[in-house]
From TrEMBL:
GO terms for cellular component: plasma membrane. It is an enzyme of class 2 (transferase). This is histidine kinase. The modification 4-aspartylphosphate is found at D383. Gene3D superfamilies: 3.40.50.2300, Histidine kinase-like ATPase, C-terminal domain. It catalyses: ATP + protein L-histidine = ADP + protein N-phospho-L-histidine. One of its GO terms (molecular function) is histidine phosphotransfer kinase activity. Its EC number is 2.7.13.3. Keywords: Kinase, Phosphoprotein, Transferase. It comes from Paenirhodobacter ferrireducens. Residues 332-450 form the Response regulatory domain.
Amino acid sequence: MAITENPSLKNLIDTLSHAEAADDRALLLLSGSGDALFANPAGDALLRHWSHGAELPPAMRAAMRDAPLYLRRPLPDAAGAELICLPLDDRAGQRVYLFRADRPTPEAEAYRLIRRFAVHDLRSPLQALLATTEGQAPALSAAARTALDRITDILALSRAETLAELSCAFDPATTIAAVVTMLQPLAQSRQVPLVFDPPPRRAEVQGPEPIFRLLAQNLIGNAVRHGAGLRRIRLRMELDRPGLWTITLEQWQQAGTIPRALLEGLARGTAETSEGVRLMHAAGQILHGSWDLLSRPGEEAIALSFALPEAADLAPAEATPDAPPHDLAGARILIIEDNTVVRDWLAQAFRRAGALVSTAADGMAGLLLAETAAPAFDAVLLDLVLPGLDGLSIARRLRLRERRGRPRLIGFSAQDDAETRAACAEAGIRLLLPKPLPAAQLLTRVAHEIHDLRSSEPPMDQSPAVPSSPAQRIALFSDAIVQELLTDLGTEGARRFMGRALDEAAETLRALQEQGFGAKTRAQLHSSVGSCGITGLRLVEACLRRIQDTGRESGALAPRYRELAEAIEQTRTALTDGGPLGPSPTGR
């Protein structure tokens, strides 16, 4: 008999259906193969959240497989959810699995999001701290960078569905050294001697580094705050058998100063201990470690030992970043960032590397700079959250007007979750860098992008050219920009906006013809290029740019003026006589 024909199952589903209105919970009933047999609306949302539109994650399947009959069991990595295994037919081995979870209120969900973004927002002040201290206060900069790593750990822990998602290749000695460096300012302020003895043998291992870092920070931090005498952190690494390392972290201090109750709390995690001790106990459990008390003349230590496999074939990208393939000499870079400290620090870092840097403090100013730059910027580094116009909107506009791959769009943001990355990719942002980021890493990543740009470009003039044959001329309008204007402004609003840009181009032409190519007309020409660019007047913009290039080279400008006059006339005719906006109601 099929499971769906089982009378017991039908009775259970009927009971759940009637309980739906009264029970303020998510209810979900699955078969042994993971098929949904019943779900109320909240249960359906729960299933989508767990499966992400595909299959149940391995941790959920393991929980179903190991669930005892009739006993409620909390689910791993699913706070507030529980599982009950129910038999339908013992002879056939049929089981169903009832999941129940509290239905989150809108306020609870909003609070969860606020907590998540509050952690993200810690990145911005840390970037400002790095900007202030880098190159001037090395110890403080190192502490800030390690604090950034801790925020990254917290974000990873908040997003991970399973422990396997936290696993990475890492060097335990490097992790401990970073934690000690971060805590040195605290130790110095308390006049506490804190030293680290790295292991003579070092290796890359595979495991949950965020858990190890969290444990080490609490262990060493407690030693600084509550220990006595010299605090010595020792790390031992021994190859237990091929491919498996035994790691022992020891925190030494003055003999007779470690409470025996502390070791008991670390080993058992009793409710009477502090939150910090319970946290270290939980981390030790995840690492499958054992706690011990060591002693030698005048000193004693708390020690944790655990085993991790050796990392296989660590990719070079995981290690210390390579030096930039080329320096940034002559690279044209625009930085759009509203935080003054961060913007100035970024500009200074790129200028020291040889780049030609322009900056903007808001989105609209940044867009105008990027749209009108001649030649185009090699890269635009833009914050995603900006006043006036956000970074994603800027990226979409610049992608439509890309000139031979320029500019490369590089996002710089405290938000680095999967949703943000997907939105950046859709907008044309090639690279999303986390905020904060040390200068060396930032310069390396941007240098790689510009190196790729330079190595891929063909040997030809960068500016858009206007072919001499009218039959070969480029399009009058940028269809994508025109469509965007129609969506934002409506037909008549778009027509007026484009008409003003066209009138500005005509006025620029008259000024050039009367005054020639000079300082005053160059500024007017620069403004007109931007106006035509953001309104989609593609042919007129190309002609204006050709005048710019010819004027800089002291070439003959009269033929270029004639081309511009012709382009203006053609564009005006198209705008009034049935171009991309349709015929004008006034016939003008």
